[in-house]
Every structure is written in C-alpha cells, then in structure tokens.
Amino acid sequence: MASTEPTAEEVVAGPAVTGDLHGEMRRAARPFSRTTRVLAALVVLAAVFALGAWTHAAFGPASSPVPVRQAR
After folding, report:
1. Which of 1, 24, 47, 55 is the most exposed place for a label (fewest CB within 10 A)?
2. Under DSSP, is residue 14 helix (H, G, I), strand (E, B) or coil?
C-alpha cells in the first residue's frame, strides 16, 4: 500500500504558504491575539492584588480586637 503522507523531501521542496502570503506574514507578526493580551492583563492584575494583600498582612499594623459594647 502506498502512503498518502508526503515525505520529508516533498515537504521541504513544497511552498510554505499556498494561500495569501501577505496575510500569513501579518498573522505571524502578531503572535498574541487580543484575547491573550486581555487574559494576561487580568493575571497580572490578580497577581498584583495578591501581592498587595500579602504585603499588607505581613507588614501592616497588627489589628486590635474591636471592643464590644455592653448591653444596658
């Protein structure tokens, strides 16, 4: 049985892009989509918030207990 998979030589000898080369180069120049950038910004924001909370807990003033009012 003949294999339908191209050989390594055929892959290397063939064109890299069979469609729109300009569009393909434009997509390659933008490796990160807008969604990826938004998700990365949210991760950074969450990390900054967590770091701030940890810093406040580690170095902030010790909280004193709130005095309880006596019922009259």
Report:
1. 1
2. coil
